[in-house]
Q: What sequence folds into this?
């Protein structure tokens, strides 16, 4: 790792990947707040990520934006940059950097499971893999997401009078949940907290089918009987949720596999749906890439590094700060 | 195992009592015998798998999972059953046998085949089943369902009186097919063996001075509420069984208590320690509780005896339908005939008006011996549970202390969006040391004030716990203080509740822990 360092800095072209502070040149893997920060001079990202940044931070959140299409290679001096879909959220990519014959792939956040709300993950061979490890413990084995969504629908049948308040992250998770519901032929309107509106609208602009969704308007409590309402987890914990009558608190997150965690958060119906790779995806992908070196950016690094050692791969934890648990409650 | 596992999973995540009842009812309705009976037994702690040590399970997991990865996972998850169920390779569809079969297999498992069989079970189970299986083996479900709640559910399920279920509960055994037959109206009420069966006790409701206006003092009697433990004593053929209020057989802890009575007699009373029927304090009694082996020294230092309150059976006759006066007469007769050093009558306090009783409570109470007064309606039958309008407990006035709010956690159910469980403390030198927790006593308005204070003054978060700025003083009421080795402060409050908010009071006026100890301990 001579030409990149532990801050994901590519020295030959003076460029950072997902920097946590404003820099001159930044490559942004996706629009989540812990990866995309405002205030950079030059930003290189997918069209979708750039749009999401503008929606969240304003048109002028960086001086210059440069789009790069998936699977197209951009040559900057002696470094070649190619984006491959990461399957995490709309616009998310892995960043492959090639320099003097060495291939380093930065996964950003990713999942290998299919997802109709974004481009599906594409595996890439490399010499060095810089990976996330949000769910990097063998206890995290995400179940089939369609079965999880069926749990929500079954609960609606069982409690037809109770509003189902689903805690979701505003970008990516919210739209994925709506999409999954539509795949189960749930065609009623879905209610959303105001904080989700802009991003849902943007997904629709990008031709992702979400069906009919409406912002909640808290005038009549009875109105939401038996409805699905999506909101950020913070709103569900907050005063906002008091306005619903006898709601079932649900939460869609990879952390929900841990019952004690669900219980602590007072979640009655945990939905184990994650936009991150689980333990099996993480380890299988490391094997697939044939990487000799694996650097872990954030998450449960220790276990992945240990696993690498068990498999004769060089593992190193970077423990990047400020990049933690956006799915967290 | 699937039905059982999904049931306890749902119960774990449900905090509303009514909803738990609904979930259980639904399960009993849709599950055949003997599965539902075994589940009932596990939930009410009536059945444990004792022959498989949890260390064996750990050993099996260690052989299949890298030790370091397991340690990191366990550290993160925090619960052994969950860690194992999650770390084992997942499968969507489980295939463990049903609960009744599973219990049979586990109880009869051979040591030689134990490892192989458990390993197979872990592999054919899905994640929820695996969790249920390990919970079953390790015992102690901790899903927030009490026996009382389970019985309430049974009453609702079978449309029967809870009291009738209580009366037979301790005389029936898993898988309770006779019970379910009766509940489903396809059999008679189960017969029980009186000599060995605990009968649920009659309990009292709290009362305050302002409530007396609605009660005619002529209809009531009073006696001291002794500060010991409530017991039920079953005597037959000179053999004695002693049960605690919750139905635990504690006879072995008090082997000295004897009687020559040959016929079946069931008595209700307060177990105390002391000499010449003069009780020592509660701390002394605690020396005798929860001991499997009783030394002669303990018996000599803290001899046990019983103050008799009531009689339920005499010479095989059920007296519970008779009124209190009739029962008291029969109790006194029995007592004089069978007098010995272990039995004393709880004396009746004569009073002619509530005012008179108020004075007696004020002047004659002995702090070390009495928890307060009991007031009983003369015409009341003996009804198990806590029936309204029959027996009342008039406790000693609570003690109070001003303490500093330290931590808060959100409540459950209706209160899930409010910070409503509070930890408070006193000065311990320059620091503040927590002395207890309370989650009631305040009204809705006070709760809003507390909730707002917590949200606006959080200085740290530990998972769901918020640490707040140490600026808010609350007045805490409590019944008494015991010394405790389990708490860092060295004290444990009995029945603490938040009496008043003292926003006006500066924290520097809150007392030191040592002052608190010297005043109340």
A:
């Amino acid at each position: 790792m001579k030409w990149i360092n532990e801050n994901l800095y590519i020295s030959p072209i003076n460029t950072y990947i997902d920097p946590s502070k404003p820099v001159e040149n930044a490559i942004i893997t996706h629009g989540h707040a812990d990866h995309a920060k405002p205030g950079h001079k030059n930003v290189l990202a997918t069209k979708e990520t750039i749009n999401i940044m503008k929606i969240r931070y304003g048109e002028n959140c960086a001086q210059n934006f440069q789009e790069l299409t998936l699977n197209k290679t951009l040559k900057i001096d002696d470094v070649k940059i190619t984006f491959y879909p990461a399957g995490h959220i709309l616009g998310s990519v892995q960043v492959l950097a090639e320099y003097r014959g060495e291939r380093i792939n930065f996964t950003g956040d990713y999942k290998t499971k299919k997802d109709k709300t974004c481009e599906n993950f594409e595996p890439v061979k490399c010499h060095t893999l810089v990976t996330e490890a949000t769910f990097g413990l063998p206890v995290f084995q995400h179940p089939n997401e369609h079965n999880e969504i069926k749990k929500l629908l079954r609960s609606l049948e069982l409690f037809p009078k109770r509003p189902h308040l689903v805690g979701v992250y505003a970008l990516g998770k919210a739209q994925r949940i709506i999409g999954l519901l539509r795949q189960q032929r749930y065609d009623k309107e879905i209610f959303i907290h105001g904080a989700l509106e802009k991003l849902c609208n943007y997904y629709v602009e990008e031709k992702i089918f979400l069906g009919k969704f409406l912002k909640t308007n808290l005038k009549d409590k009875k109105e939401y009987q038996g409805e699905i309402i999506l909101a950020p987890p913070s709103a569900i914990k907050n005063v906002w949720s008091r306005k619903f009558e006898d709601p079932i608190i649900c939460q869609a997150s990879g952390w929900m596999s841990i019952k004690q965690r669900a219980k602590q958060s007072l979640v009655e119906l945990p939905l184990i749906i994650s936009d991150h790779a689980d333990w099996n995806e993480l380890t299988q992908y490391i094997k697939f890439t044939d990487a000799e070196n694996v650097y872990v950016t954030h998450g449960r690094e220790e276990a992945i590094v240990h696993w690498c050692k068990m498999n004769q791969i060089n593992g190193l934890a970077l423990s990047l700060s400020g990049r933690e648990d956006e799915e967290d409650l | 195992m699937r039905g059982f596992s999904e049931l306890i999973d749902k119960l774990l995540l449900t905090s509303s009592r009514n909803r738990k009842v609904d979930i259980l009812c639904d399960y009993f309705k849709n599950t055949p015998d003997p599965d539902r009976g075994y589940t009932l037994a596990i939930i009410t702690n009536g059945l444990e798998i004792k022959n498989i040590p949890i260390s064996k399970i750990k050993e099996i997991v260690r052989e299949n999972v890298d030790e370091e990865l397991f340690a990191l996972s366990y550290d993160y998850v925090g619960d052994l059953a969950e860690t194992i169920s999650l770390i084992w390779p997942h499968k969507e569809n489980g295939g463990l046998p049903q609960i009744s079969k599973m219990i049979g297999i586990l109880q009869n498992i051979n040591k030689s085949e134990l490892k192989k069989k458990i390993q197979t079970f872990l592999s054919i189970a899905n994640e929820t089943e695996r969790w249920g299986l390990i919970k079953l083996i390790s015992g102690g479900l901790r899903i927030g369902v009490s026996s009382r709640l389970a019985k309430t559910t049974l009453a609702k399920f079978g449309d029967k009186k809870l009291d009738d279920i209580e009366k037979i509960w301790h005389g029936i055994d898993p898988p309770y097919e006779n019970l379910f037959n009766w509940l489903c109206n396809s059999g008679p009420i189960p017969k029980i063996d009186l000599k060995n069966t605990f009968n649920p006790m009659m309990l009292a409701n709290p009362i305050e001075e302002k409530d007396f206006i609605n009660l005619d003092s002529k209809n009531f009697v009073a006696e001291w509420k002794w500060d010991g433990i409530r017991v039920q004593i079953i005597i037959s053929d000179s053999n004695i069984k002693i049960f605690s209020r919750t139905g635990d057989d504690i006879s072995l802890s008090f082997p000295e208590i004897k009687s020559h009575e040959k016929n079946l007699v069931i008595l209700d009373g307060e177990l105390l320690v002391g000499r010449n029927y003069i009780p020592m304090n509660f701390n002394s009694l605690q020396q005798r509780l929860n001991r499997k082996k009783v030394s002669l020294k303990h018996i000599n230092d803290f001899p046990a005896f019983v103050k008799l309150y009531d009689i339920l059976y005499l010479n095989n006759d059920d007296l519970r339908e008779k009124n209190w006066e009739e029962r008291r007469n029969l109790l006194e007769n029995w007592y004089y005939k069978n007098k010995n050093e272990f039995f004393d009558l709880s004396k009746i306090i004569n009073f002619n008006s509530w005012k008179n009783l108020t004075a007696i409570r004020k002047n004659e109470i002995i702090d070390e011996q009495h928890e307060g007064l009991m007031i009983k309606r003369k015409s009341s039958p003996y009804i198990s549970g806590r029936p309204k309008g029959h027996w009342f407990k008039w406790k000693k006035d609570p003690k109070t202390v001003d303490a500093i709010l330290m931590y808060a956690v959100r409540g459950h159910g209706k209160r899930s969006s409010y910070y409503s469980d509070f930890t408070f403390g006193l000065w311990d030198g320059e620091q503040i040391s927590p002395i207890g927790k309370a989650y009631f006593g305040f009204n809705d308005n006070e709760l809003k004030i507390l909730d707002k204070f917590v949200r606006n003054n959080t200085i740290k978060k530990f998972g769901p716990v918020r640490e707040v700025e140490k600026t808010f003083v609350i007045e805490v009421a409590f019944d008494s203080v015991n010394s405790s080795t389990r708490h860092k402060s060295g004290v444990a409050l009995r029945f603490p509740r938040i009496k008043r908010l003292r926003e006006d009071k500066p924290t520097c006026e809150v007392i030191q822990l040592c002052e608190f100890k010297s005043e109340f301990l």
User: Anything to note?
Assistant: Residues 17-30 of chain B form the longest helix (14 residues). DSSP finds 18 helices and 21 strands in chain B. The first strand of chain B starts at residue 205 and ends at 206.
